[in-house]
Amino acid sequence: MWRFFRSELLKLRKSPIWLLVFVSPALSTIFGLGMRIAPEMEEMAWGMTYTMMAAPHGLLFLPLLTGVLSAFVCRYEHVGGGWKQMLALPVSRGTVYVVKFVWVIGLLLLTQCLLLAGLLAVGTVKGYSAAVPWDILVSSLVGGWVACMPLAALQLAVSVAWSSFAAPMAVSAIFTLPNILLVNSEKYGPWYPWAQPMIAMLSGAQQAEPGVLGVPPETLFIVILGSFIAFFLSGFVYFQRKMI
Amino acid sequence: MMRGVMASEWLKIRRKGIWLLIALGPLGVVGLQALNFFLRYDYLTKRYADDLWGAVIGNVHQLSVPTLLMGIAIVASMIAGIEHQTNAWKQTLALPVSKWCVFACKFTLLCTLLVCACTLLAAGTVVLGIALGYGTDIPLVTLLVKSYLPFLAAMPFAALQTWLSITIKNQAIPLTTGVLFSVLCLFGTAVGDWVPLKWLYLENQWNEPFYSAGPGLLLGLVIYVIGLIHFIRKDVS
């Protein structure tokens, strides 16, 4: 499994995927730098900057990026007819699928880390005097990452099934664009898997001013875990039986 | 020559799900706004009491902008991806057609599909407004302006996405620029009038939608010509 993991790295190493991972954190950092914070709000500077940076990132970027990355890790196989070659190697289909999934979420984790780095850079450049609220930041970023896992599972299943790069992206866009309306709804937003990255990333930071989202963590847990199991299992079983 | 190539382009996109997407985009936007309006019917009807139709059209338009940008990226990538996927660029260009013609036809195809989507959006908006019981006193000019002018304002993006999708083999890149634009356009109303993303909202200091669509058409043409020249001079691998 580890070797297989490394063979994937070889495929991705010289590809523009590293560029994609940087796009959203870079954009968010520019947003963060452009933001002005009144002196009397200095105490909350970190939280406010984080909210400003995480909102566009979590609302559309992260769910859509999940789609791009999932399609990307399947690209070499689809383009060069590599599925046959790869499955002729002494690896099980299950391993192939799990390793691809781990790569997708690994790259997403890297994106989240870069976002954190961007936030720290903004804070340093602007010289925030307050202490960095590590616990809130880390739990929000990890929360957003975990909330992406069901999406990654579905996208990987679609990416494996269709050889076109744009088709999985279409699925991703179809489910992600309703976020723009749904995150405003306290009643329906928490039940929508694609809204979870945004909710997970922002609800922690807003605990300082409670009642903004007011979503019980149990709901989120059920939605994220439930959709993850459903999407991952169906993709996994599908790949086991797929004719290559 | 153009007609033959165009006919082959129509043939190539058959059974690829492109028509499904063209239908799903506007219907999805209208459907979501239908949900929005039906769930909050009393609140929204009271809030927009003096201009109910304007509210429906405006809300649909707001949501259609990011959808349009994402749709352009995906459809452009699908149209160009047919050749990338089967490594058929050499084959297509070996036919007795000029390179500019191939590029022009792909772009025309995208535009034609987008016009279909805009028409569906307008029709869907009318159905939604009537279903909401807002009467049949439809402001037709506003409806047509808000349904079709964003398409003209989106020309720079259509030209850019066509260009990127055709010249870059790795479709992740044009699709990521599409994602980038649709995220950025959410902040479109907050920036200066000269930013192309704002044109899609048809808002400017003169309050004249055509002042947004005009520059869009012009810039679209410029990007199209640049892309065309680049494609003609580029080696085909």
From TrEMBL, chain B:
Coiled coil feature spans: none
Regions crossing the membrane: 63-82, 103-132, 138-160, 172-190, 210-232
Pfam families: ABC2_membrane_4
Alphabetical UniProt keywords: Membrane, Transmembrane, Transmembrane helix
Identification of the protein by name: Permease
UniProt source species: Brevibacillus borstelensis AK1
